Amino acid sequence: MKLFKSKIFKFIILPLLGIGLFCLWFFVFRVPNFELETLSLNISSADFEKLSELRDVALENDFLERSEDDFVPASIVYRSQEKSGKVRLKGDWTDHLGHKKWSFRIKLKDEMDDGLKVFSIQNPKSRGHVSGYVFHKLLKQEGILTNEMRFIHLKVNGNNWGVYCLEEHLSNRMIANQGKPAGMILKFSDAGFFQIDNSGESTDGLIKQAEINTYGGNDDNDLNSKAKSIISNYQVQKEGSYTDFDQLAMAKYYALCDLTTAYHAMGWINIRFYFNYETQKMEAVGYDPYPVLEWGKPYLGNNVERTKNDPFETTMIVYSALKDSAINTAYYSELERITHPNYIQKFMDENRAQIKFLESEIKKEYSSYEYDYNDLSQRAKDIRDGLKSKK
Description:
With 391 residues, this protein is α+β, with helices and mostly antiparallel strands.
């Protein structure tokens, strides 16, 4: 009892206990315990040599031409699970094939405990580093379907290949994990696009010839046929085709691409679509947002009337959605909402700790990299200034 009444207890021990409890609260309960997991990829010497030769051909041609024969057997160890499967090089342009930064598509024989079975691992630079994380986070926050994105440490045959970005492939898992109703994902095949683009020829109009690929879905042939019909109408820009789209979801997607400058995600070879079986409406899927492209700035709606008349010009097919009056009205309403300073501040407050952690992990490998914490607020300001000048 004397100890508790003593000056030593009152002025030394008690303050130290208080500091200790504060540190415990701050570092254990208040600060999230972030950590990057390690994925180990194991490939035989002969099969690794095959991938290396395919990489050499791609570097010579300036793009990667893929086929089903490109896969080689592999095993992975991830989240304390060892799985067998196959792997190939992934990507279109050679930015996916840098020294010790090859991109891979992985298909597991059996899915992991969380359902992950087909996914890609790639240089985080190809997805805009932390900006890619921000893009995906915003889309999920607004209920727009997008594939799961994680950052990992990669080891290939025991060698450290650094920080990588892991992205799940298009699947029913992707739909279910985001609480969306059952549906089908669709995309346009980019077969032949990169050869033509690399040759310097125009790629305008190629969308009309592109095959429609589908992922997920169920055995309801009527709904699947309707989904393909909607995308076919979009493909040839049939009048009134946007009435089969979820107009609010499209408006949100367009506004978020403006806010994050994710115009790369809007080109027809990159954009994916989700047909919601419940609403029987089509929605855009957020995918492959970077590198940053300038053509949509300061915001897409400002450029609609200044584009070419050819509806199949590469950017015009993006702008065409904003010529639908319902989408256009919702789009401007969403632009006003998501560019409000309170919206940006709330998002950054909720995600700053995770962003800082990811930035610090990337800086271990790319020492000069810095995430621009003012990027969203500056983009929002530029958009709002542009909106004011049109009133």
